[in-house]
Design goal:
Layout: H1 27-38, H2 45-55, E1 61-63, H3 64-73, H4 80-92, E2 97-102, E3 105-109, E4 117-120, E5 126-128, E6 154-157
Parallel strand pairs: 4-6
Antiparallel strand pairs: 1-3, 2-3, 4-5
Helix pairs in contact: 1-2, 3-4
């Protein structure tokens, strides 16, 4: 899998629909379109709008529900299933990293390089573990005909109990 460059510090108004023909696209929007095309995805209106939300706030962890709420707050009209489908498509082509946490709960991370996470079980927020701070003496051998391609660690947290 090739590493996709992250777009940082991108913030522009999010609007669905066509831009007036005499208005050029923003530099950030062109970067997003190029990023989508480079990953083999057509830059649809919905994908561009969700990309602006995802990459407009730097490195972040997001659930489909949270991104859908952000989209609605930004005045975007799209279904939760559209958000789920888009996030899964982005993860399939390496634009996002999918993090399955517990049961049906899944997060997506704009940082796609291998790393581990803390999960606050009360707030349901995720945080990156400092790179290099988790080490393994060994891993079990994989089943016959399989190879290990990665190892994801989620360290669960909760506030300390008083007393």
């Amino acid at each position: 899998m090739t590493h996709q460059p992250m777009i940082t510090n991108f913030r522009a108004p999010i609007q669905l629909g066509k831009r007036p023909s005499n208005t050029p696209p923003s530099r950030g929007e062109e970067e997003l379109k190029a990023k989508l095309r480079g990953a083999g995805l057509r830059p649809t209106v919905q994908r561009i709008a969700l990309s602006k939300l995802l990459y407009g706030n730097g490195d972040r962890h997001v659930s489909a529900e949270a991104l859908h709420a952000e989209a609605r707050e930004a005045g975007l009209q799209m279904s939760l299933s559209t958000v789920y489908n888009t996030l899964n498509q982005f993860a399939d082509v390496g634009l996002l990293r999918e993090i399955a946490v517990q049961g049906p709960r899944t997060y997506f991370h704009t940082r796609t390089s291998p790393h581990h996470h803390f999960m606050d079980e009360v707030s349901k927020k995720m945080f990156d573990v400092v790179d290099g701070s988790v080490q393994f003496a060994s891993l079990p051998p994989p089943p016959e005909g399989m190879e290990i391609v990665g190892c994801d660690v989620i360290i669960r947290l909760r506030p300390k109990r008083k007393g």
